[in-house]
Protein: Hemerythrin domain-containing protein
Organism: Micromonospora profundi
Amino acid sequence: MSTDAIVLLKEDHKEMRRLFKAFQDAEEGPATKRQKLVDQILEALTVHTYLENEVMYPEVRRLLPDLEDDILESYEEHHVADVLCLELTRMDADDERFNAKTTVLIETVTHHVEEEEEEWFPKVREALGRKQLQEIGEKMIALRADAPRTPTEPKAIKKARDAVTA
C-alpha cells in the first residue's frame, strides 16, 4: 500500500465517485437504500475532509506558500460540503429535498475533486519530493483511525467551525 499522500487522497476520491454513482443509480429506488448510501457518502467525506484539513492542507501551506490561494479555496469548498453534510444528517431519505440536496453535495464535491486532481495535485507533486509526500501520507494514515465518521462528531464540527473562523 502506498503512503504517498496524493495516492491516498485519490483512492478516497475513487471511493467517493463509486458512492456517488451508486446514489445516482438508486435515486428512484427505495428510501432505505438511498439513506444507506448517503450515510456512506457522509462517512467517506467526513473522514476525507478531516484528513485534508488536519494534515494535507496545513503541510502544503507550510511547505509551499505559493499555493496559499488554492488551499484557502479548498478550505471554503470543504466548508460548503460540511454544511450540506450536516443538513443531510437531519433529513430522512423520503424528505422531498433529500435527493436534491444530495445531488448538490455530489456536484460540489465532484468539482472540488476535479480541481484537486487536475490542477492542485500536479503542482504539489512537482514541488514536493516523493519523501515529503510519503511523510504527509504516513501522518494521514496514522490519523485516519481517529478521524470523525459523521459530520455531527465534535472533531468534525470543530473542523467546520475552524473553516469559518480561519
Remarks:
- The chain is about 80% helix and 0% strand.
- The two ends are 34 Å apart (CA to CA).
